[in-house]
Design goal:
Elements (H helix, E strand, L loop, with lengths): L3 E6 L3 H17 L5 E7 L1 H6 L1 E6 L7 H7 L1 H17 L4 E5 L2 H13 L4 E4 L12 H7 L2 E4 L2 H9 L4 E3 L14 H6 L8 E6 L4 H21 L2 E6 L6 H11 L2 H7 E4 L3 H6 L3 E5 L2 H9 L3 E5 L3 H10 L7 H6 L6 E3 L5 H13 L1 H16 L6 H14 L1
Parallel strand pairs: 1-2, 1-4, 2-3, 4-5, 5-6, 6-7, 8-9, 8-11, 9-10, 11-12, 12-13
Helix pairs in contact: 1-18, 3-14, 5-6, 9-10, 9-16, 16-17
């Protein structure tokens, strides 16, 4: 038997982390010389042994307008994958999220007779539901990480399985607040606010300035210190430049820290958080820190997206709970004054904070006790043997 090849494609930071974890699980299940991986991903997938044909830092765009500006890069990566796959045909394609790219790739792979496992569903239950036809036609198995997604796909004739959420696998944040904040030369007794503005450069450009202006307003009412999370997919210097354009230098040095530490540790040692919509908001929910969800993109992209989004709530924590636990501030509603007032309500009222923490504790129970990576690795192995 020859070596089995797996095409694995991730397009952003969290998928890179989950993809790397899956690769290691598969390596543990198979002899190291019997399986190999190539595709797109980030540093973690590369370290796990994936041959990268394109790095995610070149693929991270948000919104319609932003994605259009990167079409040439997307197309080059897409063509590179197709050419390499033609010369080194994979035994299986494993596609993680990244729907605009991966659903097109799934179509090509399926037409070449290559089976497709899709891990982490496109959010077609929220917007652009017409994509269900592509999923049904080109995906052999959809592996979903949100509990309500399984029923959605089953009703629409898709071979689907809920595998649990990979965030739960190693979600054990450092909760030694005194040691954590003291190591940053910050006061553990002072109110601490986390800022998670995104893992893409464009997200930082659109979201971070608004949140920092809210932080400045908040600082007028309460003495607080701020932890700005720097994702590995965004240059630290870029975040520093954005922060420096908004904050006075003395305040930036005294009360703000830009950190490359694990975002869940930052959240777990904070009293409140400003969090970008997406996976980060689920991390905040699991850390059980009171927070608000925000998002901003170009007006054109928001206009297009708002016509296609079908759900009354957009935050993952709220969707899973099926109620609005966490305040949401999107686009025109994401105003510094409104966000600062909301943060102050929680920081100044321990009972209000405790009530949200209690509600957030129910989120974990709904995400399953299964180890997602184990379940996905078992499915992939089954296809390799079949």
């Amino acid at each position: 038997m020859g070596k089995k090849r797996i095409l694995i494609v991730a397009g952003e930071a969290s998928a890179d982390r989950y993809g790397a974890r899956l690769v290691r699980k598969l390596q543990a299940l198979h002899k190291s010389d019997s399986i190999c991986f190539y595709g797109t991903g980030g540093d973690e997938m590369q370290q796990a042994g994936v041959q990268l044909l394109c790095h995610i830092r070149d693929l991270a765009h948000i919104g319609v307008r932003e994605a259009l500006s990167g079409l040439h890069t997307y197309y080059k990566a897409y063509r590179r994958l197709l050419r390499y796959s033609a010369d080194h045909s994979p035994d299986l394609a494993v596609l993680l999220d990244f729907p605009e790219f991966n659903l097109r790739l799934a179509k090509k792979m399926k037409r070449r007779g290559i089976r497709v496992v899709y891990y982490i569903s496109p959010q077609i239950w929220a917007w652009r539901s017409g994509r269900i036809r592509a999923v049904r036609d080109y995906v052999d198995k959809m592996l979903v990480i949100l509990p309500f997604e399984e029923e959605y796909y089953l009703k629409r004739g898709v071979h689907v399985e809920f595998v649990g959420h990979p965030l739960l696998e190693d979600f054990k944040p450092d909760r030694d607040r005194k040691a954590f904040l003291s190591s940053l030369d910050l006061d553990p007794l002072r109110k601490t606010v986390a800022i998670l503005a995104g893992s893409r450069r464009k997200e930082i450009d659109y979201i971070l300035p608004t949140v920092l202006r809210a932080a400045l307003l908040l600082q007028k009412d309460i003495s607080a210190q701020f932890l700005i999370s720097a994702a590995p997919t965004v240059e630290m210097n870029h975040i520093r430049r954005v922060a420096g354009s908004i904050l006075p230098q003395d305040l930036l040095e005294s009360s703000f820290r830009i950190l490359s530490r694990d975002s869940r540790d930052i959240l777990a040692n904070s009293d409140f958080a400003f969090v970008k919509s997406g996976t980060s908001s689920l991390e905040a929910a699991l850390a059980e820190v009171p927070f608000l969800i925000t998002y901003r993109i170009s007006p054109f992209s928001w206009w297009i997206g708002s016509m296609l989004i079908r759900t009354p709530m957009k935050g993952l924590a709220n969707l899973i709970a099926n109620e609005k636990i966490v305040p949401e501030f999107y686009q025109s509603e994401a105003q510094p004054e409104k966000m600062a007032r909301m943060a102050l309500e929680f920081l100044a009222d321990p009972e209000k904070s405790a009530a949200m923490r209690s509600q957030l504790a129910t989120i974990r129970e709904k995400l399953s006790v299964r180890c997602a990576s184990d379940a996905v690795a078992a499915t992939v192995s089954g296809y390799l043997k079949g």
